[in-house]
Amino acid sequence: MSILSGGGALPYESASPEGLAARWVRWVAGVGPFRNPVRDRSGRFAGLHQPDDVWFLAGTFGGEVRRRCVVPGGRPLFLPAFNIWSVGAEGPPEPVPDAFGHLVVDDVPTEVDVIATPVPFAVAGALLNPVTGTRQAVPVNVWGLWRRLDPLPAGSHSLHVSGGDGYGFTVEVTYRLDVV
Asked: Among 34, 115, 149, 158, which residue's Cβ finds the most Cβ atoms within 10 Å?
């Protein structure tokens, strides 16, 4: 089993909004703590374990960061403005009613969508991964404010994403994306 299949088949289509959110969580879990894209301060780990059909962008575990990375042309992007996962889940995730998220791509505000995984999915990640901490398959669900973007044209692009839970926890990432 590859890291990106980290837990077997998903209970929904992999390209659906729920499938993309679950795959993003598996992507984060597929990398241990030292090179994890969410902890990355510069963007140097953004390309680790990326799937062939979409390019995932990471948020933070709180706070602000600036990253630069190269994105292959022709790939849609998928990212959270804010998300929260629950390990050991037995049902759908609880919504976060005061959560907020903002996304601006090349100075154009873009809406974010509420996406939740209605059925828990298995995540088997790298040892000490930030999602489950274990290589064992564990049921997880996720709720968040996300966006799938169509592929950006070749060239340099700015992407600014921010969000929070409405109670003081915030994330903010500014990306310089070089699409080649």
From this structure: 115
